[in-house]
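Researcher: Structure prediction, please.
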Amino acid sequence: MKHLLSTADLSKDEAVLLLDTAAQMAATQSREIKKLPTLRGRTVVNLFFEDSTRTRISFETAAKRLSADVINFSAKGSSVSKGESLKDTALTLHAMGADAVVVRHWASGAPYQLAHAGWLDAGVLNAGDGTHQHPTQALLDAYTIRRHLVGLRGGAGEGVGADLAGLRVAIVGDVLHSRVARANVALLHTLGAEVTLVAPPTLVPVGVETWPCAVSYHLDETLAEFRPDAVMMLRVQRERMSGGAGGFFPSPLEYTRYYGLDARRLARLADHAIVLHPGPMNRGLEISAEAADSDRAVIVEQVANGVAVRMAALYLLMAGEDSAEGNDL
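Model: Predicted structure follows.
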């Protein structure tokens, strides 16, 4: 596979290979010298048309840990702000000899166009496009879940080749605007987990009945009956709602009352259950400070795991063909 555009494109074997490779990458990051020579001489371009801190820095760190040269491109202050098209930007990157392009774009489908329009001879990694997909976020979430919970099924530790069969994951919040939710539903289903989306009716996308998951409008009921092993809280994306909340819910207080993860709901989770959040968090809205800072929360760990997962993705897309394992992806 030359590109990583959507978790829906990944087979189970490909997804497990990515997670296994991420585990190998993570093991190297405990060394005194963290850099690997794997991508020496290759050039990775971070092409960001939307603001980002965690994802951009994570990809930059991952590429540098693999010894690649990194070029950071921001739409603000570039020729894009003067009206340059995506095509012309891609042709410029092609002329510069980019080997891989990590792209975040406000328009759903932009990475797909970049990968398939013939403008570039480089691997394209989707770092988030509109409300469509965020595959590496879903992969780092699955990696984090696997590290903590796969042992529940009788395995030991993380387990090479392990999937997530038998685990239950609740994804809670602003599903309508969330590319993280879409990417996670597809990947978790591929890996064998059972997924329930929890959101107010106004924040559930049209057509969700075709997704491989259940849908609930009641968080307390879901915690009591579904008994999730992992609870993923989604950020309320007020910047994508006209007027802040844009009429999607009556008030922040009411949203928190019905869909926020607080100390009371945290106490109702199973002893082994973990809490995830893609960040940045709206503390006091979708998650309380007590929940975010609790021992159950693996939110900071998700950030660290993101580097290993993105190292794995860059390696398998750029150098994987040079190894026997890489031929599977």
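Model: The chain is about 35% helix and 15% strand.
Researcher: Thanks, that helps.
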